[in-house]
């Protein structure tokens, strides 16, 4: 079996879920390629040493530049803050390493384009981990759409309300909101198609640093003084909404909010056509709610479909019948596609081109939220 040696940069959430996916892949993959968890990188030696032991890495480094220079590394897995993506990804591409880079691909359209072009010029395999594409419910929803069961599609909606995390710093919360919107945009592009124009709207919250409690303000209101005038306050985006039109004329709505209460990781998808509708919430990863209109009466009711056993065409992963897939299994599917891409020397999807297109949309939505005008995407 061919072995490919992985160098992981970062050991926070992306690093941990990717580490588990590499381990699990060995028990499921049939493509004859084996990831070796060679080295993990972190800035603080005591922390990265512990992470290497906990996650199963053979060694550790404290400088990502040394990692990229090494001859015993074939893959660079980037799980750092987005501000570091461009520098690391470009250096990895120039060193001839295959790259998987967490979302969003970059902090701007220009940086994302630089990363994509560098990887394409180097001829390396590249991928952006958008795991929602590989959730059982999403894979089955794509089949329903592609099979034409909903008829002509008129409307797409994505709503994301993550669990609040007051431990995140202000900059991390801003990154989280953009990251969640990028994942929703990628789902829309994957299920419906490319987007031609968009207009965005954002909501901001005045709150003490480190707290999600505060008062919302809109462009039409004066700022309200914080409850404690002696506390340090910042204004940060807590909700983003975008209205879009896809190339095929379909209307879409994307909503992301950090102010929802009682949610774990709600990610609602709704698609409406002239013959039926489907809904899914990724808090229930294995269930699609489908309503098909009776051609005679014109009526229909939603029914739940368990799609835990659904296997998409070309699916080569072993799966135990009747076992429910969880969030972590989506990363196993994703890593499987990445390894198959390396094995076949072909970039899987989603790749840096998708990351670039999603970044273009993110930037357009943010700009249009300031100008309150529709913007063409391109």
From TrEMBL:
One of its GO terms (molecular function) is oxidoreductase activity. InterPro entries: Gfo/Idh/MocA-like_OxRdtase_N (IPR000683), Gfo/Idh/MocA_oxidrdct_glycsds (IPR050463), GFO_IDH_MocA-like_dom (IPR055170), NAD(P)-bd_dom_sf (IPR036291). Residues 138-279 form the GFO/IDH/MocA-like oxidoreductase domain. The lineage of its organism: Bacteria, Bacillati, Bacillota, Bacilli, Bacillales. Residues 212-233 are annotated as: Disordered. Residues 4-128 form the Gfo/Idh/MocA-like oxidoreductase N-terminal domain. This is Gfo/Idh/MocA family oxidoreductase. The keyword Oxidoreductase applies. The keyword Metal-binding does not apply. Keywords: Oxidoreductase. It comes from Cohnella terricola. It holds the Pfam family GFO_IDH_MocA.
């Amino acid at each position: 079996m061919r072995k490919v040696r992985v160098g992981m940069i970062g050991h926070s959430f992306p690093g941990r879920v990717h580490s588990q996916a590499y381990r699990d892949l060995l028990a499921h993959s049939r493509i004859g390629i084996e990831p070796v968890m060679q080295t993990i990188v972190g800035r603080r030696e005591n922390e990265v040493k512990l992470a290497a032991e906990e996650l199963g890495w053979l060694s550790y480094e404290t400088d990502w530049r040394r990692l990229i220079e090494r001859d015993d590394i074939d893959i660079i897995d980037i799980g750092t803050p987005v501000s570091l993506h461009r520098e690391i990804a470009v250096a990895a591409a120039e060193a001839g390493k295959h790259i998987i880079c967490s979302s969003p691909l970059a902090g701007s359209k220009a940086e994302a384009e630089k990363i994509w072009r560098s990887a394409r010029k180097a001829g390396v395999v590249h991928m952006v981990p958008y795991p929602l594409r590989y959730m059982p419910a999403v894979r089955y929803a794509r089949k329903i759409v592609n099979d034409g069961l909903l008829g002509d599609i008129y409307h797409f909606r994505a709503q994301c309300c993550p669990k609040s995390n007051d431990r995140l710093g202000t900059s991390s919360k801003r990154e989280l909101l953009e990251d969640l919107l990028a994942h929703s945009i990628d789902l829309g592009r994957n299920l419906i198609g490319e987007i031609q124009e968009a207009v965005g709207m954002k909501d901001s919250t005045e709150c003490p640093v480190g707290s999600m409690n505060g008062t919302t303000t809109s462009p039409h209101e004066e700022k309200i003084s914080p409850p404690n005038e002696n506390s340090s306050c910042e204004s940060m985006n807590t909700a983003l909404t975008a209205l879009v039109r896809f190339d095929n004329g379909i209307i879409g709505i994307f909503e992301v909010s950090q102010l929802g209460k009682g949610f774990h990781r709600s990610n609602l998808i709704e698609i409406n056509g002239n013959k039926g509708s489907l809904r899914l919430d990724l808090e229930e990863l294995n269930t699609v709610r489908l309503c098909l209109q009776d051609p005679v009466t014109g009526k229909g009711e939603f029914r739940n479909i368990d799609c835990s056993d659904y296997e998409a065409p070309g699916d080569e992963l072993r799966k135990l019948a009747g076992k429910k897939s969880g969030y972590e299994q989506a990363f196993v599917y994703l890593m499987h596609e990445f390894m198959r891409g390396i094995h076949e020397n072909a970039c899987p999807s989603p790749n840096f081109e998708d990351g670039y297109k999603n970044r273009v949309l993110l930037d357009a939505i943010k700009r249009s939220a300031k100008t309150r005008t529709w913007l063409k995407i391109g």
